[in-house]
Amino acid sequence: GAEPGPGAGSQPLLAEGTDTKTYLWARYHEMKKLVYDLLPPGVCNLLNPAAIYANNEISLGDVEIYGFDYDYTLAQYSNLLHSMIFNTARDILIEQFKYPEGLGKYDYIPGFAIRGLHYDVQKSLLMKIDAFHYVQLGTAYRGLKPVPDEELIELYGGTQHIPLYQMSDFYGKGPSLKQFMDIFSLPEMTLLSSVIDYFITHGIEFDQVHLYKDISDAIRDVHVKGVMYKWIEKDMEQYILHGDEIYAVLNRLVNHKKKLFLITNSPFSFVDKGMKHMVGKNWRDLFDMVIVQADKPNFFTDRRKPFRKLDDKGSLQWDKINQLEKGKIYKEGNLFDFLRLTGWRGSKVLYFGDHLYSDLADLMLRHGWGTGAIVPELETEIRIINTEQYMHSLTWQQALTGLLERMQMYQDAESKQVLLEWMKERQEIRSLTKNLFNPQFGSIFRTFHNPTYFSRRLGRFSDLSMASISCLLNYDVNFTFYPRRTPLQHEAPLWMDQLCTGCMKTPFLEEMVHIR
What we know:
Mean pLDDT is 88; it is low at 1-9 and 495-516. The protein is globular. It has 19 helices and 20 strands. It has helices at residues 20-38, 80-95, 149-155, 164-167, 185-201, 208-224, 227-234, 236-239, 243-255, 268-278, 298-301, 335-342, 356-367, 377-385, 388-407, 413-437, 453-461, 495-501, 509-515; strands at 53-54, 58-59, 65-68, 76-77, 118-120, 125-129, 135-142, 145-146, 177-179, 240-241, 259-263, 289-292, 307-310, 329-332, 349-353, 370-374, 446-447, 450-451, 464-466, 480-481. Helix 2 packs across helix 6 (208-224) and helix 15 runs antiparallel to helix 16 (413-437). Strands 1-19-16-15-3-11-12-14-13 form a 9-stranded mixed β-sheet, with helices on both faces. It has a 5-stranded antiparallel β-sheet with strand order 8-7-6-5-9. Strands 2-20 form a two-stranded antiparallel sheet. By secondary structure, the protein is α/β, with parallel strands linked by helices. The chain starts with 19 loop residues before the first helix and ends with a helix. The chain is 42% helix and 13% strand.
């Protein structure tokens, strides 16, 4: 019988003598065969982990000036750093803040947390929130243990919705809800969860606000007191990745007459040693401007701090800055003076950074610069997306969702039981797919079917996103990036888009098989 479209209320005519239960299971098995026929062996590996992905149309030929952050943008660090940060901050808590010595038994757990999570300070909850401000069920943790869905919903007054705008500011800094956005925050989230786990396990009452502040301060001390800088400087071979590729990127841009500048919060001595390691002793010759200890994001929003010049030894000069000279090093300053002194405005500037708020948001929203987000997780997640297990799980999940949508008008007792079984299977597949990325929190880009809050901000504040700066080597310096036209909910998907991207909508599977 002919099937109604989504939202239609009439039931298809069944062949005489066919009960609805038999009909529903027949459609289920037809669809399952269809999905597996549609995905022959070798259909995976559609996506390139070293590709650059566009949220906006950007022509590199129009870009005259390239700007870069340093940490996790030019300098990509080994994950070994996370254990060192965790251990040092944990020891600061024990030795300086007088936390229980039993915390010393906790070690860093690689892969426990992911970037972009929110932490509710008053409730001691670490959780993943989607683009519509709902918590993804199964991804709320207090300490190292998941919070049951029913308890989570009760904590927020009978809903999964988090009143984000009441609890947090634009930059995700609270006061009562904090978003962890940079890669350095992975050890902080793990330490936070470990300390809470210790207190809960030992039945020790604690003040949530003090605990959060103490851990933030301990982590900050690792950075501010220069401990982390010393580790990296001591063993750059171990901690800094892809140095030779960074030299290749910068050198190629300069050879094509592009201007380069660097704006970092790190101190000059640290950046100088790292750049000499990656690029060579004459690295400063490649840059028109180098600004250190910039205090981003305040650098982009606050007009008060003037630039100060550093001499070749890194000592501060006192003279007033009326121009920014090539080859010189500057400290602090602000973007408004930078724009006034350079005249570098609008889309002819393309700036790369790893932190969506500190590096990119204000540049795009207030100043119209092009922005490139460095997202190392793209590489690991794309490798998972390219597996046969993921491709089959996702496609069957979408097909099953389509069946549920189209067959929900059958409301007799036997049909309801079939639909319940399908819903249960769908939920199991969703959990399995989530766990492929991270058993606790899943993908940093998706909460089941919705984009994550992190993903929505990524699309809002970056024109381009890539796993590392070295991805630029895969493209000509005049290459134009065209964003993929993905259909809106009210638009019919284009066949070519569907076939090329693997984004298959179930109501059209039958027709697509014929096209293949």
